[in-house]
Amino acid sequence: MNQPCFHVVLVAPEIPQNTGTIGRLCVCTGARLHLVKPLGFLLDEASVRRAGLDYWPHLDLRVHEDWDAFLADAKPERMLFASTKGGRSLYGFKFRPGDFLVFGNEGHGLPDAFYERYGDGLYVIPMPGAHARSHNLANAASIVLYEALRQTVFSPDAVAAR
């Protein structure tokens, strides 16, 4: 299989519909989806398949037993951690093909230890609205992945080089 343009990593996702939607996003963009257990659902649940539609069989999916197994298996060189607790805007990050885009789960975000361990890699999606805590996980993954694609695959320099 070809190397993916980007990797989307979901740490302990809880809602199957979000994972299905993100799986469909990954198929549409050529990204690889990494799921880090524990999962809040079974991958054969109808709701995952329904959200992923008929795209799911085409998904480049890797499932990891835990975070350490993910690190050992995937060997990520660069990771961006999307978090409402990030100190810098996503739009200040300079993406490179092959980057890993890491998201926490719907109920708790990233594990607490990540904030200290990966503090330099925490980025926030700016939200000028005043009444929401965060975006839906599938929407956040779309925002971050398409910004990564905009900077790399869809940039004027990248398009001109094709």
Question: If you had to describe this structure to a student in words, what would you say it looks like?
Answer:
With 162 residues, this protein is of the alpha/beta class. It has one domain (7-161): SPOUT methyltransferase, trefoil knot domain (Alpha/beta knot, 3-Layer(aba) Sandwich). Helices cover 35% and strands 17% of the residues. The chain is built from six helices and seven strands. It has helices at residues 16-29, 46-52, 67-74, 112-117, 137-151, 156-161, and strands at 7-11, 32-36, 61-64, 79-82, 88-89, 100-103, 122-124. Strands 3-2-1-6-4-7-5 form a seven-stranded parallel β-sheet. Strand 2, helix 2 and strand 3 (61-64) form a beta-alpha-beta unit. Helix 1 runs parallel beside helix 2 and helix 1 (16-29) packs parallel to helix 5. The longest helix has 15 residues, at 137-151. The protein is globular and about 40 Å long. The mean pLDDT is 90.
Nutshell version of this structure?
With 162 residues, the chain is an alpha/beta fold. It is built from 6 helices and 7 strands. A 7-stranded parallel sheet has the order 3-2-1-6-4-7-5.
Which helices and strands occur, and which strands form pairs?
Elements: E1 7-11, H1 16-29, E2 32-36, H2 46-52, E3 61-64, H3 67-74, E4 79-82, E5 88-89, E6 100-103, H4 112-117, E7 122-124, H5 137-151, H6 156-161
Parallel strand pairs: 1-2, 1-6, 2-3, 4-6, 4-7, 5-7
Helix pairs in contact: 1-2, 1-5
Shape: globular
Give a short account of the largest sheet.
Answer: 7 strands, parallel
Q: In CATH, what is the homologous superfamily? A: SPOUT methyltransferase, trefoil knot domain
Pattern of helices and strands: EHEHEHEEEHEHH
Helix content: 25-40%
Beta-strand proportion: 15-25%
Counted up, domains total 1
Count of distinct strands: 7
- The oligomeric state is single chain
How many angstroms separate the termini?
Answer: 21 Å
Strand order of the largest sheet: 3-2-1-6-4-7-5
